């Protein structure tokens, strides 16, 4: 098991400096790798289940999906046109004139053989007639006396516009690799192979709770100093995007007994616990004590904005089951919750659930305005990605970037990610952008 002592609250490194975002990512990935190795050594077959295609979206494929057939199953036409023997292109004439013998449709092939000087009108996907290896696109041909077509030789080469048998997939080869987070296109591919069920990793069970005396559930009147709990709803939405099983542990008061009971309950039935609130310097004193009793958890100051305080580690069940739960203690501010989830939790959940690709892709866009930034921390600015008059992608911030301004997230469709060592951004500079679509 990865030793978290060097990441503990007593570490002089963490007391005097903040952890780099990349360092935090690596530490999390290392611990998840250890947990996965433990699980594999126990050979837990219950981690895999069979599901129908209509239930497989956003599940993670547990084993390679092998194609039971060749794709295509036979040579066929890649477009509408006329199929003929490419040997006819070897003659000296510049113009080819071929007699049309009939028509081949997808699902209704032409029956018979083609000789030199003959062709068959063919539709996209139709089987290539016997004796044909080339298709001239229809738009390059002209009708000749109603029963023949003509075209110039330089319009096509031998073998063009023909899809060969098994050029996409060979029978017995992997159509989709294990670890794939299944998308609609993957489900369509499986269906095209006649496969109705897939072997996927069991859904992770993720428990969520919000900590704070000031929090109130929806429907309850607010008294002085209280606020509605929004974080559990944001987290529920984030987790639903990953198609995970959610255990809602509700709101927990800021007292040691209540928190300890909630953590013990979550560790006994969940693979992962995500809490929000109670991890900043002044708030976490008794939380640290509880964590030391229940597992191995470090309290981090991360060089990022928003989302500086975070706790991470392992909770152990108090019974003798040996069960362990991955723990993320996220900040209390609503935007910081979503930023830290995006930066750390999402990748860890995908990795723990068997995904081969866990990092979200980045793109770039031109900043429409200057952005102030201090070197020494990674910043995640909420923004709107658009397109300028010149066709280039552009990005504009959604106004004030405070960690408690949830509206800034609701209006945004992306993060502008400003790296650790980066300084101020001038209008017109290219910046890294992470899209919300599919993530938040």
Structure description:
The structure is a single chain. This protein is of the alpha/beta class. The protein has 3 domains: 5-50 and 202-352, Molybdenum Cofactor Biosythetic Enzyme, Chain A; 76-163, Molybdopterin biosynthesis moea protein, domain 3 (Molybdopterin biosynthesis moeA protein, domain 3, Beta Complex), CATH 2.170.190; 363-435, MoeA, C-terminal, domain IV (Beta-clip, Beta Barrel). It has 8 helices and 26 strands. Helix 4 (231-241) runs parallel beside helix 7 (334-352). The longest helix has 21 residues, at 21-41. The protein starts with 11 loop residues before the first helix and ends in a 5-residue tail after the last strand.
Descriptive keywords:
3 domains; Beta-clip; 6-stranded mixed sheet; 440 residues; Molybdenum Cofactor Biosythetic Enzyme, Chain A; alpha/beta; elongated; Molybdopterin biosynthesis moeA protein, domain 3
* CATH architecture heading of the largest domain: 3-Layer(aba) Sandwich
Tell the overall outline: elongated
Strand content: 25-35%
Which CATH C-level class of the largest domain is it? Alpha Beta
Largest sheet: 6 strands, mixed
CATH topology of the largest domain: Molybdenum Cofactor Biosythetic Enzyme, Chain A
Could you tell me how far the N terminus lies from the C terminus, measured between alpha carbons in angstroms? 31 Å
Number of helices: 8
Low-confidence stretches: 1-16
The count of β-strands is 26
Computed over alpha carbons, the radius of gyration is: 30 Å
Helix content: 10-25%
The number of distinct structural domains comes to 3
Fourth-level CATH superfamily of the largest domain:
MoaB/Mog-like domain
**Helix/strand-derived class?**
alpha/beta
Placed side by side, the strands forming the largest sheet appear as 7-4-6-5-9-8
Q: Mean pLDDT, rounded to whole units?
A: 89
């Amino acid at each position: 098991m990865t030793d978290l002592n060097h990441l503990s609250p007593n570490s002089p490194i963490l007391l005097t400096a903040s952890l780099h975002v990349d360092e935090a990512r690596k530490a999390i990935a290392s611990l998840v790798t250890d947990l996965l190795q433990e699980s594999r050594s126990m050979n837990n077959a219950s981690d895999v289940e069979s599901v129908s295609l209509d239930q497989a979206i956003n599940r993670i494929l547990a084993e390679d999906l092998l194609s039971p057939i060749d794709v295509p199953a036979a040579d066929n036409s890649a477009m509408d046109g006329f199929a003929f023997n490419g040997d006819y292109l070897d003659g000296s004439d510049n113009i080819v004139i071929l007699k049309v013998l009939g028509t081949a449709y997808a699902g209704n092939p032409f029956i018979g053989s083609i000789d030199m000087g003959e062709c068959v009108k063919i539709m996209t996907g139709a089987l290539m007639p016997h004796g044909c290896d080339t298709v001239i696109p229809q738009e390059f041909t002209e009708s000749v006396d109603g029963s023949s077509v003509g075209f110039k030789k330089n319009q096509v080469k031998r073998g063009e516009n023909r899809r060969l048998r098994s050029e996409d997939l060979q029978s017995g080869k992997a159509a989709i690799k294990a670890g794939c987070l299944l998308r609609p296109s993957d489900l369509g591919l499986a269906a095209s192979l006649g496969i109705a069920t897939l072997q996927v990793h069991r859904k992770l069970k993720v428990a969520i709770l919000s900590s704070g005396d000031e929090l109130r559930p929806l429907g309850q009147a607010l008294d002085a100093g209280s606020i509605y709990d929004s974080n559990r709803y944001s987290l529920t939405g984030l987790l639903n995007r990953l198609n995970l099983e959610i255990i809602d542990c509700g709101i927990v008061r800021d007292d040691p007994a209540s928190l300890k009971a909630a953590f013990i309950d979550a560790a006994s039935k969940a693979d992962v616990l995500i809490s929000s609130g109670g991890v900043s310097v002044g708030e976490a004193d008794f939380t640290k004590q509880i964590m030391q009793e229940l597992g191995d958890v470090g309290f981090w100051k991360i060089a990022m904005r928003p989302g500086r305080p975070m706790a991470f580690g392992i909770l152990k069940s108090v019974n003798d089951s040996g069960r362990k739960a991955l723990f993320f203690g996220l900040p209390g501010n609503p935007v910081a919750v979503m930023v830290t989830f995006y930066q750390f939790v999402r990748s860890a959940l995908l990795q723990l659930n068997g995904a081969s690709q866990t990092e979200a892709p980045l793109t770039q866009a031109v900043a429409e305005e200057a952005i102030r930034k201090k070197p020494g921390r990674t910043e995640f600015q909420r923004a709107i990605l658009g397109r300028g008059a010149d066709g280039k992608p552009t990005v504009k911030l959604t106004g004030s970037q405070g960690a408690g301004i949830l509206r800034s997230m609701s209006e945004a469709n992306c993060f502008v990610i400003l790296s650790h060592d980066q300084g101020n951004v001038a209008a017109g500079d290219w910046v890294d952008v992470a899209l919300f679509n599919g993530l938040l």
